[in-house]
Amino acid sequence: MEQAITMDGALRMGNLFFLCFAVTLTSWIIAEALYNLFFHPLRTFPGPLLWRAFRLPFVIKAIQGRLAFDMLSIHEQYGPVVRIAPNELAFAHSSAWHDIMGGKQDFAKWDEYYKVQDRQATNIMFAPAEEHAKMRRAAGFGFSDRTLREMEPLIQNSIGLLIRRLRDHCKSSEAYGKVDMSAWYNFTTFDLIGNLVMGESYHCLENADYHPWVRPIFQVTYISAIMSSLGHYPWFKSTLLRLFRPIISRKILNHQAYTRAKLAERMKVNRIDLVQAMLDINRDNEVEMDKLVMNASVLIVAGSETTATVLSGVTYLLLSHPDKLARLADEVRNAFESEDDITVVKVSQLDYMLACLEETMRLYPPVPIGMPRIVPKGGRIIGGSYVPENTHVAIWHRALYRNPAYFTHPTSFCPERFQGDPKFVDDEREVLQPFHVGKRNCIGRSLAYIEMRLVLARMLFNFDMVLNDESRDWMANQRAYNIWSKPPLHVRLSPRSLN
After folding, report:
1. Which of 396, 121, 459 is CA-nearest to residue 260?
2. Which positions make up the binding site for heme?
3. Between vectors from CA 300 to CA 439 and to CA 277, what angle results, nearest 5°?
4. How far apart are CA 138 and CA 282, in angstroms?
5. Which residues pair with 484 in a beta bridge?
6. What one-character DSSP code corresponds to residue 314?
7. CA–CA separation, 455 and 309 (whole Å)
8. Whether the model pTM is above 0.70
9. CA distance linking residue 358 with residue 456, whole number of Å
10. How far is CA 437 from CA 97, 360, 431, in A?
11. What is the residue-level pLDDT of the chain in tens, covering all 499 positions?
C-alpha cells in the first residue's frame, strides 16, 4: 500500500514537473514573440508575421534549400526592405550594395555563418578587417593582370584537355555524344584551380570522375550551409557538432590534411601561380600554416564550383533559346579561324558572349543567397532607412536580380539588355553585383571571366550542342544552399570538323 502511494505521488510530481515545464516553455515562446513583434528595435519593418516573431521559419527554409526562391515573393509582397527574422533584414534596394559594402563601410561578417568549427583558423572569407586586408594584399599578387596573363598556358592546357576528352567521348558507341556538361565543367575548373593553387591537376578530366579529395567538397559545403543556418541557435549547433563530430570532423579534417600535404609539397618550388605570394609571406612567419591551408581551400572551392556553375547555367540557357545560341555561335566562329586564335585577349572582345554571361549571372547567380553582415555600433542608414546596431543585414542575389522593380522582363533570358537595347533602357544594371562590391569583393573575378570566356568559346568553336529532353527543366527544381545543388545537365554534342 505504501509503495503504491509512493509511486502515485512520484507520478503526480512528474506530471506536475512536466506541466510546469510546458507552461514555462509556452510562456517563454509567447513572451519572445510579443517582444519581437511589438518591442524589438526592428518592429516597424514589414515582413511575414511568423518570420518577424521567430527565427525558426528562416532556418527551416534555409535547410530545405528554398530560401533563395521564397525571398523574391517576400520582397514582392513586402517591399525592398524586409524583416526576415527577428534580428535580420533583407535588402532589395538599388543603393544597398554601396550602403552595406561600398566605400569605407565597416560592416563585419557574422562569424557564426562562416565558421563551421569552433576552433577554425581564419581565412580570407571571414577574417577581421585588418587581417583580411593583409591576406588580400598577399593573394592579390596571384590575381593581378600580369600574373593571370603569364598563367594563360596553364589555363589553356586544362581547357584543351576538356575539348579532347569530349571529342573522344563523342566517338564512344555507348555515349552517342550524350554528356553531363555540369560534371565536365566541374572536372575542368577543379583540375585548373588545382594546378593554379597546388601545382598539380586533380586528374578529373583524365578519369572522367571526381578526385577523392574533390568529391567530399560538395558534402562539406552542404554541411556548412546547415551549420551556418544553425548558427542562430548556438546551443543546438554545438549539440549537433558533438553528436556528429565523428562524421563532420572526419570529412573536414581529411580535406584539410590532404590540402596541408599538397601545400607542403607546393612550398618546395617557386612558380607563377595564385599562391606564391602567400607562401613567400609565410616564410617570413607572418601567416601561419593553418591559415594558409584554409585560404588554399577557399581558393580551390570558390575558384572552381562557382565558375562551373555559371558555365552550366549559360549552356542551359543558350540551349533553351536556340536563337541566342545561334547568334553567339556565329560570333565565336566568325571571330576565330582556328583554336590557336582563341586567346584571353581575343575572347575579351566578344561583346555578345559577355552579355550572355552577365544575363546568366543575373538569372542564375553562382551564389544565390544573402551573405549576412552585422550593422556596426551606432547603427547605419541603409536604403534610406535607419537600421540599429547589431542587426543582421543581407542582399539576396537571386531575389534582387529577378525583381521587376529593377529589370524589364526579369525572368526572361535577354542578353541584349546588356547591349543597349532600348526595350531595357529602364533596367538598373548596377544592382547586378554577383562578385560583390567594396573591400571584400571577390578577388577571383578576373580569373573567373577568363575561364568562362575561354571555355565557352572553345566549346562553341568545337561542338554543336542540343539539350536533352531529360534536362529541359534543369533549373526548375534545384536547391540553393551557399551554392547550387545541381542535377546532371544532359547535352548531346556533335563535334564540328575544323579542317
Report:
1. 121
2. 442
3. 60
4. 10
5. 480
6. H
7. 13
8. yes
9. 13
10. 7, 19, 10
11. 555 556 666 666 667 766 776 777 688 788 888 999 999 999 999 999 999 999 989 988 988 888 999 999 999 999 999 999 999 999 998 889 999 988 777 788 877 676 655 555 677 677 777 777 777 777 778 788 888 898 999 999 999 999 999 999 888 756 567 899 999 999 999 999 988 888 888 899 999 898 877 777 776 667 777 777 776 766 666 666 666 555 555 666 677 777 888 888 888 888 888 887 777 766 655 457 777 778 887 788 778 889 999 999 999 999 999 999 999 999 999 999 999 999 999 999 999 999 999 999 999 999 999 988 999 999 999 988 999 999 999 999 999 999 999 999 999 999 999 999 999 999 999 999 999 888 888 888 999 999 999 999 999 999 999 999 999 999 988 988 888 989 999 999 999 987 6
Residue 336 in contact with residue 457, Cβ under 8 Å?
Answer: yes
For cell 607546393, name the residue.
Answer: 266
Q: Are 320 and 467 in contact (CB under 8 A)?
A: yes
CA distance 467 to 396: 29
Q: Which residues are annotated as a binding site?
A: 442
Distance CA 25, CA 21 (A): 6
**Cα–Cα–Cα angle for 412, 96, 49, rounded to 5 degrees:** 80
Q: Which three cell numbers stand for residue 177?
A: 555524344
Bridge partner list, 485: 479
Rg over CA atoms, the chain: 25
Q: Is 394 within 8 Å of 88 (Cβ atoms)? A: yes
What pairing do the DSSP bridges indicate for beta strands 479-480 and 484-485?
antiparallel
Give the bridge partners for 83, in sequence order. 89
C-alpha cell at 475: 533549373
| CB-based burial, 111-123: b 16+ in 10 Å, e otherwise | ebbbbbeeeebbb
Number of H-type helices and E-type strands within the chain: 21, 12
Phi-psi category of 3—alpha, beta or left, where left has phi over 0 and alpha has psi -120 to 50? alpha
Helix (H, G, I), strand (E, B) or coil at 444: coil
| Runs of H (alpha helix) within 172-233 | 181-198, 204-207, 215-229
Q: Going from the N-terminus, what domains does the chain have, and what CATH number goes with each?
A: 33-495 (1.10.630.10)
Strand ranges for 294-449 from DSSP E? 373-374, 380-382, 385-387, 392-394
C-alpha cell at 339: 583554336
Contact 413, 320 (CB under 8 A): yes
∠ CA(65), CA(71), CA(75), 5° rounding?
175
- Cα separation, 213 vs 128, in Å, equals 29
Provide DSSP, 134-155.
HHHHHHHTTTSHHHHHHTHHHH
Query: What one-character DSSP code corresponds to residue 85?
Result: E
Distance CA 399, CA 391 (A): 20
Any idea what DSSP says for residue 375? Answer: P
